[in-house]
Amino acid sequence: MNKGLPVFLHLIIGLFSLSASAQTKLQDSLIFQSAISNTLAVYYSQLGDQSPLYNGSLYTPTGFTFRRGIPYFPSEQFDSGSVVYDGITFGHLPLLYEDLRQLLITKNDNYLLQLVNPRIRSFFISGHSFVRLVADSLNPGISRTGFYEVLYPGI
After folding, report:
1. Residue 85: domain span
2. For residue 17, what are the β-bridge partners?
3. Distance (Å, rounded) from C-alpha 41 to C-alpha 45?
4. CB under 8 Å to 51, separation ≥6 — which residues?
5. Which of 16, 27, 83, 90 could lock 123 by a disulfide, CB 3.0 to 4.6 Å apart?
6. pLDDT digit string (tens) for 17-27?
């Protein structure tokens, strides 16, 4: 009787340790990603003029005349890009980056709007990725707060 109890316990433990799965992880993650994408698409379409992007100020050009070059990167034409603004990623926006004053500009139907820099975490325009870095005493490598192009993303 004593020998049968340990064998029975090992059998029970062995049965409960077997794993069974109904779906593969790849299918589950694809469905999950699709659901997130669709939810975000509905969210962005319903925001309209209540979007957090529209809390900036009207953009006014520099007023300077340049003999050579332009204050915009990489050109003075709006290009489709994306921005992480208030922790929300907004994609497929018409963006223009004024490098002279470090302003990110988007356009609405009737006006040009400069986004609030402290609310921008990063943006992507014309194949270039930028991040906002804040200068502080703990990071002596950053001389001033601003947008910096990511040349090598690291690992």
Report:
1. 56-149
2. none
3. 6
4. 44, 90
5. 83
6. 666 555 555 55
16 assigned to some structural domain: no
| Cα–Cα distance for residue pair 44/41, rounded to 1 Å | 5
Strand ranges inside 1-75, DSSP E: 57-58, 72-73
Per-residue model confidence (pLDDT) at position 18: 63
CA atoms of 120 and 41, how far apart (whole Å): 21
Nearest to 128 by CA among 81, 94, 65, 68: 81
Using one digit for the tens of pLDDT, what is the confidence trace for 83-129? 999 888 888 889 999 988 999 999 887 889 999 999 999 999 999 99
- Does residue 6 carry a pLDDT above 60? yes
Residue 101 φ then ψ, to 5° = -105, 5
Beta bridge partners of 81: 93, 125
Residue 65 lies in a domain: yes
Helix (H/G/I), strand (E/B), else coil: 82: strand
Domains held by the chain: number: 1
Q: Give strand ranges (E) for the chain.
A: 57-58, 72-73, 79-85, 88-98, 103-107, 112-114, 120-125, 128-133, 146-149
Q: Does the residue 35 lie in any domain?
A: no
Residue 29 token pair: 């993650």
